[in-house]
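Researcher: Good morning. I'm working through a list of sequences from a screen, and I'd like to move beyond sequence-only analysis. For each chain I'm collecting a predicted structure so we can compare shapes side by side. This is the next one on the list. No need for commentary yet; just the structure.
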Amino acid sequence: MKTVKLLIATSLDGYIAGPDGDLSWLTPFEGVDYGYADFIATIDTTLMGNTTYQHVLTLGDFPYKDRTNYVFTRQLSTPDAPYVQFVSDTAVEFVGRLKQQDGLDIWLVGGGHLNATLLEAGLIDEILLFLIPVTIGRGISLFQPSSTRQDWLLTDCRALDKGMAQLNYRRK
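Model: Good morning. Structure tokens for this chain:
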């Protein structure tokens, strides 16, 4: 059975992007691996919302070509896109089925709405949180308000350079 892992950076005040998806606050932390290569070797599937996918496209060459990539969208027509399968099914049912398959784990790349949906459904198994020492005031929250309490176990905590911290959690 596959595990869904959310690896994501967040500001101290809980935002994964600023207004209009701004990620410039992450620029000072680019260029260092921070364990990414080890992490990416554990996954064979990515999940992302359409807004996150559109951002990934701005980075140049699609970075997950050797993985199975699902983009959740409400758009009725989707463009032909190499390396990507667009999904209009409900994320909860789709990911529930996906987790039952054999293989490596699943990376929930993000999108605040997709994060919240899968968290609410209890489908995120691990959270690998990179806490960035900046407050941005407003933007896209790590998670949207939820009606369910969920408990997590801290499995690792590391201080990184430039004041950043990595916190790893597993669902209790």
